Amino acid sequence: MEGKKCYINGVGVISPQRTYVNSEFLPEVKSYGNNVLTCVTPDFKAYLSPVQLRRLSRMLRIGMTAATICLGNAGIKVPDGIVTATGYGFLEETEKFLKELLERNEMQLTPTYFMQGTYNALAGLVALSVKCTGYNNTYVSKGFAFENALQDCLILLNANPNFNLLLGSYDESAAVQYTAGMREHQFKKEPVNSLDVFRNKTDGCIQGEGSAFFDLSGEPSASTWCSVEGIQLIYRPESPDELKETINSFLLRHDVQETDVDLVVSGMSGCKSKDQLLESLERLIFVNTPRAYFKHLCGEYCTATSFGMWLAASILKKQQIPEIVRASNHEFPDQIDTIFMINHYFNRNYSLVLMRR
Amino acid sequence: MSQRVFITGFGIITSIGNNSVENFQSLVQGRYGYGELSILDTIHRTNLPSCEIKLHDDELKKLSGVGDRKGFTRTTLLGLVALKEAISCAGLTKKEVHRSGLLSATTTGGIREFERHFYDLLNLSKDGPFAQFADTANPGEHCERLADEVGIKGYIATISTACSSSANTIIQGAHLISSNLLDVAICGGAEALSKFTINGFNSLMIVDPEHCRPFDNTRKGLNLGEGAAYVVLESEASLLRNHKSPIAELKGYGNANDAFHQTASSPEGTGAFNAMKQALDSGNVSTQDIDYINAHGTATENNDLSEGTGIQKLFADKVPYFSSTKPYTGHTLAAAGSIEAVFCMLGLQHQMIWPNLNFQHQMPELSITPVRKLMENIRLNYILSNSFGFGGNTSSLLLASA
């Protein structure tokens, strides 16, 4: 299983920052003051047909556009398979259908919201749009969805290195989820400036969203960004030591020393209590390695690892680490060959990803 | 596949039984779950009969061993009943369970509880017992809760590809085992009936108020159902180590997309054909080797025509025995793939083929006819089990006698 390469040969990302132009790298940073981050979107007309513009929900437009940008960047018309990931799916559409259902007492309902609310609607739409009859799957595993989807792709590419797989995430800052999150004390009670989320040492994080698509192949191309060496999921680690041990064996399996890692990309969320394990870990491993954080730019959401992967891929391709993501006092290197990424979702779902130039 | 994948256990709960034995007896006796709804609170109780499990949530809590603890949705409770049976059937130790992966499927998760308490939940100034269901609109919530209940930590995944979901959990579990990432993967799905689902399918006008009739020319749509089933997949190495004998081998599988329409299958059955073909090819098995196909057979006009055409195209003039078991359980959506995989294994174990209930009138578009009566003493070596869904998702599993 391990050992074979996987390359990111195309990228298309729509997020709360202007990330949809692949030749740019965080040209301007947007801050949010109300604890809810929403996508900075391109002009959809350039990517969608008039029918799609009229019919598709906001998140389907965002996802379809991110997928289109990614395929264009990779120079691929039809991928060999499509794997998508989401935590809450199209919750806005689900809510609309539910509201109609309750208000109309289960009578005279139209199916549009129901259809556009199904979790695999985006994977189906992309398949239909580009006529991709190959492998098709959708993961909805909370804070593991994107990791599961990436793992799925790595396994498929191991058997079929010549494949081009379209891997994508989507999650939206839905009001319903915000309310649910407030009940579960997931979000901050007091408004914070998103860019100050790590300075403000209180409980709760800020809500984010985004859609990130990657073209993955076992073979490099002219448009290659970087390689993905491996991924590991850790469900509910009990201690920083358990995390440290898992990281060590993960690195060993990929033949990487701690000192080989040039940069750690960390999914610190800004929540004082939920970040505790990661904070302890920073004193146990990679003590001398520079760190980058990203959730002040995209917010917290189930598939935020995909934004982290975009950041790591961009750093490796462009060989620059933007000032805004630098999160430690270390000297940051000029040459970045190896990035280790660790993410967590509400201190339950942890994941490790190793990426190389 | 570098590592062979075997099935060493299964568990199931549907409207025709709370466990494998009860489901088997119902299949043999032709007992189905279709009838008026009495547990779910909906205005469609009498006009849209479905295949409902006649146990209230409190009774399911007892059955699943949850007792009076809070936060368990009906989907989770159904899942827990089936999951516990599967674990005990496979004889997994606590340590083995701990290292196992859990791959579960659902189309709506806990939307049943979410819709019931919708306005209360959205009003942050209100508090009450309903608050235990705050996060149940999340589809992955049930899977983590199931894992926590039985102590699984090895790998967690929730899949939602509409009605092919749990077939895809089995495929992904096999991938993880054959690439040596897991020794044991417990795969399946759980689905509770909800107003959301019943009204969604009703708005698409594909629910038949009468008892559904797969592959029959008078078919008018599907009946919805609820249930859960999990199968335990184990690597060959794990079997050898534990001197275990398997129930069946997962010999191959196929996953494709029809890429035809958002909610309809192509009339040519492209996706169905591709999924079945891939399953045969990956298992190195030819069309003549297949003894039985458990069809997706939802009884919608569209599915049965598309699937039947796909089957005829692949098997030409040598179409094996086939039937849809949907009239027994209704369409259990994300759970259908694993429920029907369990039915296939019960067939393998008892050398039986389950009848396609309610078939009377031949479809003029097809030259093939499903099995109409229970067939006994049939030696089954290879079985295909189909699961298709909205979004063009098509999957097929190839099961072999061990």
What does this structure look like?
The complex is a heterodimer of chains A (357) and B (402). With 357 residues, chain A is an alpha/beta fold. Chain A contains 11 helices and 10 strands. Chain A has 2 domains: 7-217, Thiolase/Chalcone synthase (Peroxisomal Thiolase, Chain A, domain 1, 3-Layer(aba) Sandwich); 227-356, Peroxisomal Thiolase, Chain A, domain 1. The longest helix of chain A is centred in the N-terminal third of the chain and has 17 residues, at 58-74. Chain A is globular. Chain A starts with 6 loop residues before the first strand and ends with a strand. By secondary structure, chain B is of the alpha/beta class. Chain B has helices at residues 20-29, 57-64, 74-90, 94-99, 111-116, 118-122, 141-150, 165-178, 195-203, 236-242, 270-282, 301-315, 326-329, 336-350; strands at residues 5-14, 34-35, 50-51, 101-105, 155-159, 184-191, 227-235, 248-257, 292-294, 321-323, 382-388, 393-401. The mean pLDDT of chain B is 96. The interface between A and B is large, with 63 and 66 residues.
Sequence stretches where pLDDT stays below 50 over 5 or more residues of chain B: none
User: Which structural class best describes the helix and strand composition of chain B?
Assistant: alpha/beta
CATH first level of the largest domain in chain B: Alpha Beta
Please, what is the average pLDDT of chain A?
Answer: 96
* Count of DSSP H/I helices of chain A: 11
* Cross-sheet strand order for the largest sheet of chain A: 3-2-4-5-1-6-10-9-7-8
The share of residues in helices of chain A is: 25-40%
Largest sheet of chain B: 10 strands, mixed
User: What's the N-to-C terminus distance of chain A?
Assistant: 21 Å
Work out the helix count of chain B: 14
Q: Report the sheet-strand fraction of chain A.
A: 15-25%
What is the CATH topology descriptor of the largest domain in chain B? Peroxisomal Thiolase, Chain A, domain 1
Indicate how many domains the architecture of chain B comprises: 2
Mean pLDDT of chain B: 96
Largest interface in this structure: A-B, 63 and 66 residues
| CATH architectural grouping of the largest domain in chain A | 3-Layer(aba) Sandwich
